[in-house]
């Protein structure tokens, strides 16, 4: 049954506020909460565009500092290959059935949230062929689901760089690739002006919730809350898979 615009908007506001709080407290997971939940009440294309746009906006404030620390030798091969394959993901998003798209998005959350909750890391060395292959996969996932970050996170966390360096690399990668992904989806005709209106309306709520979440950070045990968040994402997306 098609929901009215007012009901869609009310559900979207709740989802965006929750996603912003999670993003602010844990530093990740906004898209993983937004994309599968929103795809249940609005079109998956719109859900992906919103997730990409709001994650880009939230990360912009962290980008200048990250750019001073980014290791381009690590990020460029992954990023360039991802740019080449984002159109493939965008084409998939725009052509596959709505219910299939929603289930693919939810399935990706279950997979990557499960791997992150288990503490899995890529076990091999960070070699160029692996980086290129990972970039290709990440680009397809960004275009199709908005969630190209988790495989790169799992890959880079296994590398030799200190955590601050890896964090800077990930901020630059996710911010720039999300922006490129939005531009490519628009160029392919997948994203519409209606999607842009949703983004403009929801962005202040998401950014505000992110700020509140960041202020609440000190009141939580970070490791325990991250694990709770990942388990919550898995349960939520598993339920969406069955609907």
Automatic annotation (TrEMBL):
The chain crosses the membrane at residues 40-60, 72-94, 100-120, 132-158, 170-191, 198-218, 224-242. Keywords: Cell membrane, Membrane, Transmembrane, Transmembrane helix, Transport. Pfam families: TauE (PF01925). The keyword Electron transport does not apply. InterPro entries: TM_pro_TauE-like, TSUP. It is found in: Cell membrane. It is a multi-pass membrane protein. Belongs to the 4-toluene sulfonate uptake permease (TSUP) (TC 2.A.102) family. This is Probable membrane transporter protein. It comes from Azospirillum oleiclasticum.
């Amino acid at each position: 049954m098609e929901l009215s615009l007012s009901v869609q908007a009310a559900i979207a506001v709740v989802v965006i506020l929750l996603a912003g709080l999670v993003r602010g407290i844990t530093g990740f997971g906004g898209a993983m909460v937004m994309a599968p939940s929103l795809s249940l009440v609005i079109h998956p294309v719109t859900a992906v565009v919103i997730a990409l746009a709001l994650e880009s906006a939230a990360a912009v404030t962290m980008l200048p500092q990250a750019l001073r620390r980014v290791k381009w030798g690590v990020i460029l091969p992954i990023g360039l290959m991802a740019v080449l394959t984002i159109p493939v993901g965008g084409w998939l998003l725009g052509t596959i059935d709505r219910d299939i798209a929603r289930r693919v998005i939810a399935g990706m959350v279950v997979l990557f949230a499960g791997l992150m909750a288990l503490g899995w890391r890529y076990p091999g060395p960070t070699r160029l062929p692996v980086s290129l292959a990972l970039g290709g996969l990440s680009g397809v996932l960004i275009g199709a689901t908005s969630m190209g970050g988790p495989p790169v996170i799992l890959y880079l966390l296994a590398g030799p760089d200190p955590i601050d360096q890896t964090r800077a690399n990930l901020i630059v990668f996710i911010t720039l690739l999300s922006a490129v992904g939005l531009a490519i989806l628009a160029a392919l005709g997948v994203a519409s002006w209606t999607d842009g209106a949703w983004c403009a309306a929801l962005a202040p709520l998401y950014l505000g919730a992110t700020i509140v979440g960041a202020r609440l950070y000190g009141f939580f045990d970070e490791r325990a809350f991250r694990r709770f968040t990942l388990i919550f994402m898995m349960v939520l997306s598993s339920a969406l898979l069955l609907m």
